[in-house]
Each structure stands twice: as structure tokens, then as C-alpha cells.
Design goal:
Blueprint (H helix, E strand, L loop, with lengths): L10 H4 L3 E5 L3 H13 L3 E5 L2 H10 L4 E5 L7 H11 L4 E6 L4 H10 L1 E6 L4 H28 L13 H13 L6 E4 L6 H10 L8 E5 L5 H9 E2 L11 E2 L1 H4 L4 E5 L6 H13 L1 E3 L6 E3 L3 E6 L3 H6 L5 H7 L2 E4 L10 H16 L5 E2 L1 H9 L5 H15 L4 E2 L6 H4 L20 H19 L4 H7 L4 H10 L4
Parallel strand pairs: 1-2, 1-3, 3-4, 4-5, 6-13, 6-14, 7-10, 10-13, 15-16
Antiparallel strand pairs: 8-9, 11-12
Amino acid sequence: MKTAVQPEAPATDRRPPRILVVDDEQSMRELLAIVLRREGYEVLLAESGRAAVALLEREPVDLLISDIKMPDLSGVDVLRAAKKIDQDMLGIMITAFASTETAVEAMRLGACDYLSKPFDVDLLKMKVREKIENRQIRQENVLLKRTLGLTHQFSNIIGRSNAMLDVFKMIETVARTSSTILLTGESGTGKGLVAQAIHFHSLRRDKPMVSLNCGAVPETLLESELFGHMRGAFTGADTNKKGLLEVAEKGTIFLDEISEMSAVMQVKLLRVLQERRFRRVGGLEEQVADIRVIAATNQDLEKLVADGRFREDLYYRINVIPIALPPLRERREDIPLLADHFLAKYSEQMGKRVSSVSREAMDLLVGHDWPGNIRELENVIERAVALEATPTILPDSLPAGIRVDSPSAAATPPDTLPEAGFDLEAHVQKIESDCIAEALRRAGGVQVKAAELVGMSFRSFRYYVKKYNLK
């Protein structure tokens, strides 16, 4: 999982992307301001190079759009000054006097595009959108690496949604303690990966980490597996054997699906957690358990406690630090990242040149509810790579259940009208409101992107957001 903590959010999350337009022609400044504000950007204007530099020193800016030829400072000079203030500043240079020399200098300084007047407004809008998105992604990556010290142990943990940022913040906070941790979440949400992340960022990282699935080992063998046994302790015990508690000495033991543990084993595990001591099966000598315990379950342990199926005292012992992992349907903005990760993984494994997911296929992936969570998504991408005959995954390579699944399915009109009549206008408004809300959710709250998803202009989309009081 690519990781991050929820520190102070990047500036682009607190406000719309901010663009500085610099041109000594008032008509050009006004034109660009109108075009860009309609796209949902915040626009700052400067009538000269010096005014632009002064503004850059006062205000954070995400993108610079500047005329090159101006009376005081050139657009290249402004870009050079902007780079000193923010080395990641992106610039689009616009001029009616194009020359190879100025173009080369602008590109050398990091201008991401160079347009000659007159230019296509739609082309400019496309380039601005692309550059803003690239900048936001770079900022997020820098944030992730800075806040958690990204290492190879997190290479399979993908996520930059707010829900996952909260999880990563908790990992960073608790990893260096020895407190017992309880991971909860549906099957396939990555509890095992989070347990590994905690261990490899702990003070015990140089010692073993061992895992035991409590539901996969027969009850008769679970005690021996966990505590070990002495020779002759039971039929077939021909030699002394270390249990996982000994193997994990000074390290970490991960007890997955702890809710499947029998009542007898719950008592014995409780003693280990309370006294940090245990005996091998058939043994008399007590041994110290210097271990860190991470438990996990996809069950509601509080309900199991209330039903008498899980010991209350053990629940409180393992629930010292709870970390809840969100299901994939609650962090849909991470689905494209995960899909791309698995696409690269299986394309390489299979030796196939499948390098992207089509927009139509990605929309289907994002719209699916993923009852199997990340594990199900990985299987779907593996299948798609195996079946796809083109460089891009198309909808036909996805399972039929995903192709017919869509968030709007619940909003289809009834086959017949109710006997008491039917308020068509209210039903249509409900569909409208649901679609607008779904588009906002998929776009992470960015109205410009959400408007594109439903084929609306930004102005129309903004009207409906206000009409239905959506946020």
C-alpha cells in the first residue's frame, strides 16, 4: 500500500486550484479569467511581470500562465522567479512572437507547454486540466513519502483516500509501541498487509514476524501450533517442537481471524497477554513471551461478546489499539490506483503488453461495490489481463457481473405505475440528485471532474449542486 498520514491536507485539498494569469493586454487577461473560472479554478491576474512576481511572493499558486513579451519583465523572467519561490511550479507560456530561443529557455526552466497566439481555448483548457492534475498527484506523492518514510514494506499498500490516510496516520503513531493491536474490516481489505507494515516500522522489525490463521487450523492442533509441544505430549508428538510464540520471540505474532478461536484457546491466549508466560503442550517449564500481538477479524467482536461467543476480558486485552480498515466501496477514489498497480503486476507476470484500462472499463470498476474488496479487484484485473487481446483493458474483458453493475441501476423507473399513481417529477429529481451526488463522490468533490462524468458544463453542474444542496 502506498502510504500516508493525515497531516495537514495539501493546499489543493483546501481550495480550488489557483492559476496566475500574466499578460499586459487587459482583453487577454479577462478572456483567460472567464474561461478558467468557468472550469472551477481560482484565477489571479497580473498586468505586468513585476506585479506577477510580487503576487507570487504573497500567494501560493498552482499554475502560471504568462505572456512572454511584456514591457518590464518577460514571461521567462517571471517563470524563473516563480521557480525560486516554488521549484515545482508549472508554467504555460503564451506569445504572439514565438522564437526557438525563448521556447528553449522556457522549457529549460520547466514550462510544461508553449502556445502561440491565437490559440485554441479548448486546447488550453485541456492542457491546464492535465497540468493541474499532475501537480496534485506529485504533491500527494511527496506528502506520502515525507509523512511515513515510504519503504518497500509498503509497496503493496495502495491508497490516498482520506479513509486510508487515517489508517496510515494510526500505523505511524502506534508502530513503535509494543501495544496489542486489533485490526477489523471485511475480508480482503488488507489486514495482513497492515500487520506487516506495523511490524516493519516497529522497534521489533529485525526480529521475526509470524502469522497464524486461527480459522484454518483444526482446534486440536491450534494449541500445539501456538505454544509448541513436548515429545510424547500426544500421539504423533515424536519430538519437541517450538510453537509460534517461541518462533516470534522479541518479534510480532499476527493472529488472523481470532474470532474463530475456541473458548478454551481464548482462555489460554488471555493468560499469555496478561502474564506474558506460557507452557508447551505436555511441558512443565514456563517460558516468557516477549512478543507483540496483532489480532485481526472480519467479525463484529462486540456482538460476539454480547452473544457469549467471545470472552469479554480477552476482547478488552486485544482491543488496546483498534484500527478499522474501510471496505473498498467506501474509498472508491483508490480503485484506479489499485487497478493500475495490479495491471502492471500481472502484465509483467504474463509477459503481455497491456498497459492501461479504458475509461469505460474504469468507470465500471469504480461503480462496482466489491464485496470481496481488494482481493476481488486483484482477481478481476488478473483475469482481464489474461483475456485482453489489446493494449487496453476493455469492458468485455471484465466479468459479466461487473459489466451489468452500475450505481444507477437502483434508480431505474418502475415497470408499471403504482395503483395510487406516480409522481414522475419527484422521481426524476431523485434520479438527478443521485447521479450528481455519485459524480461528486467519484470525482472526490472536484466539481469540474464531476461535471465531465455526467456530460454537463461546469455552470450547469454547479446549479444542480446548489439546487439539491449537495456537498
